[in-house]
Amino acid sequence: MCAILLAIAAAQAVVRGVSQGYPGAMKGCILGLYPLFAWAAAVWFLTQPAEEFLRRRWLLYLPTTGALLMMVLGGSIMPAAVGLYLAIAGAFGMVLRKGGDSRLLLWTLIGSACLTAAADKRGPLLAVGAALAATTLASRACRRRTVQWPALTWSFLIVGLVAVISVSVAYRQPSDLPVVGGLVGRMQASENDADSEAANNVELRYVMWRTALDVARSEPLLGAGAGRPIEVVFQGAELDKAASGPHNSFVGYVYYLGWLAGTAFALLIVATLWRTWRARSHPVASAWFGATVGVCCIAFTNVAFETTYIGLPSWLVVACAFALVGVPRTAVPAGDTGSAPLTRQSSPDIALAPALSGTGPSVVTAHRSWRRRPVLAPAADPPPPRPEVCPLGR
Known about the structure:
By secondary structure, the protein is mainly alpha-helical. The protein has one domain. The protein is built from 15 helices and 4 strands. Strand 1 and strand 2 form a beta hairpin. The C terminus is likely disordered.
C-alpha cells in the first residue's frame, strides 16, 4: 500500500517537475519505481527455497572486494554506496558468525578499514558501526547468545594494539596515521579551521534541511516537485551545489512529494524496525534489524533512497526485512498445492533462518505473518459392525 502511494505521489511530482523545467526531474521516477520494484522482489524472495540464499551469500563479499580493487587500480570510491553495502554485509556477517563462519565479518571489517583509508567521510563509517552495534544489541536483547565476535585470540589483539601505539608514536602528525589519517585530519580541520568545509558540514546540513522543510510547508500536499533545486544561503553566500538535494532521504521525500508521502515513508521505516525488533529472538531478525539501521544512517546523512546507485539496495533491504520477518518456518508437503486456508498469527516469525543457519525447512510457505492450517485428511469409512457372537457358541 505504501509503495503504491509513493508511486502515485512520484508520478505527479515528476509531471510538475518536467513542466517547471527543473533539472533532473525525470530522476524523480525512482522515488516511486524503486518501492514497487522492491515490493515485487520481496514477494519473489518468499518463493525461493533456503538453499538459494546459501548459494548467493557470495554477493555479501563484493563490497570489500570492490573497495580493494578501487584502491589498487586508483579509481574513485563512492563512500555512501560502499558504506551502505558494508553495513548490510556486516549485519549478516554477525549472524553467520553464530554458526562458526566469521569470514564475512572479518572481510567486512577489512573493507571498512579500506573505506576509512580511501575516504575521509564520517557518515559511511558511522553506518557500518551502527549496523554492527544494532545487530549485536538485538541479538543480546532476547537473552540468548546468538552472536559471537570473530575468533581472534588475546595475543592477536595485544599485538594489534601494540602495533597501533607504535605507529602512532612514530608519526608526528595524526593525519599521517595509516587507515585513519584522513578521518583524523578532517576532524582536526573541523576544530582548528572555522571556515573549512569540515567545520561547517553539520551546520550546513541543518540549514539545507530547514530550508527544504520550509518549502514543503508551502506545498504540504503535493510537495515542491521532482528535481526542484534548494535555494540555500549559508553564511551570506548562496550555495552552488543546491541541486544535489537536502542530503537526507526523510526530508527529501517530504520536500519532493509532500507531507503525506513523506509521513508514509517514515512510518514504513518505523514499522520495519519494529517488526524486526519484535522478532529478534531469532538470529536472522537481528541481521535484518541491523541492516535496516545501517540503511537509515546512510539515509539520514545522504540521499540513500532517492538516488540511482544506492536507492535500489536501500529499498530492497527495507522491503525484504518488512516482508520476510513474520514468515513461518513450516514446510509444505510434497503434494500440497497451496489450497490450505491461511490465518493470521499473532507473533512474528522468521523465514530466512534456515538459509543463514543451515538448518530447518527449505521452502518458504506463506507471505508475511500468514500461517497455513493443517489440512485434515477425509475421514475414513467406519468399519462394518461385527456380528454378535453367542457366548455359548450357538
